[in-house]
Amino acid sequence: MNKIKSLEKIGVDIWECKYLGNSGEYELKIFMDENYGKSSCNCCSYFYPCRHIREAKKVILRRQKVRKLFGLFNKINSVCRSKWELYFS
Ligand SMILES: [Zn+2]
Question: Given a cut of 80, is residue 51 above it in pLDDT?
Fold first, then answer.
């Protein structure tokens, strides 16, 4: 079950996330660059990064992968189209 309520990109490599946990809603800030260690979550976990941060990171990575694939598809598509127009129009 995915408990992430919202996930929003607020900077180049910064994401803001609302996570519905066992004892309420947590607010997270995830840095996806070398500042990952500064990512924060307002839960009271003794572990760092807590599971909310790790879970959110997984979802962000998945989104970035999808976006990358989509960008690649668009590129191939436009190259094909221009070749098509070159030969057949
Ligand atoms: Zn947490």
Answer: yes
Ligand 1 centre from 48 Cα, in Å?
8
Task: Give dist(CA 70, CA 74) in Å, integer.
Answer: 6
Instruction: Give the global pTM.
Output: 0.79
**39 alpha carbon to ligand 1 midpoint, in Å?**
10
What is the helix, strand, coil percentage profile of the chain, to 5? 45, 25, 25
**Continuous segment of H or E residues that includes residue 69:** helix 51-88
- As given in the structure block, the two tokens for residue 81 are 């189209």
Find the 22 Cα to ligand 1 centroid distance in Å: 11
24-49 pLDDT, tens digit per residue, is 899 999 999 999 999 999 998 889 99
Question: How many H-runs (helices) and E-runs (strands) does the chain carry?
Answer: 1, 4
β-pairing verdict for 4-9 and 40-41: unpaired
